[in-house]
């Protein structure tokens, strides 16, 4: 059984793609690194996917889906961060009402950093195939007021990234992915 965390690499002819979506790729990598560094071993596999070709029609996500859809019942949740890594506010979520209740309970663990909201729905080109077929999905919600200042521009460089905000985003990704991967049962479909 798999809990999938992800971001994609959008190298453009301008900028560096650091915020879109290098930040999403980084926090996904960091979540698994933190879990490993803490010596935690969840009941399910945590899988990191760094998608490619999202802006070219989601070809990387489509290929991955085609290769793994026969095991769709083993995918517990698919998570994608693709709207920058600014101050987080919660998660977008798509799934059953019962699964939403579980995710809301998990989000209460993030009260100390004031990131507890669950929004409807989850969004992400790279996880859309899975959600369409009933796999619960989550996307990072954060303050995107400045997102389009940098999106696909010369300004999308590492200087856009705020280490403190990225750490908070990574904390959200880490807590949610680990708790879901370590629950007794998979999220209800």
UniProtKB/TrEMBL annotation:
It comes from the Eukaryota. Keywords: Carboxypeptidase, Endoplasmic reticulum, Glycoprotein, Golgi apparatus, Hydrolase, Lysosome, Metal-binding, Metalloprotease, Protease, Secreted, Signal, Zinc, Zymogen. GO terms for cellular component: endoplasmic reticulum; extracellular space; Golgi apparatus; lysosome. Residues 1-173 form the Peptidase M28 domain. InterPro entries: CPQ (IPR039866), Peptidase_M28 (IPR007484). Pfam families: Peptidase_M28. One of its GO terms (biological process) is peptide catabolic process. Belongs to the peptidase M28 family. Homodimer. The monomeric form is inactive while the homodimer is active. This is Carboxypeptidase Q.
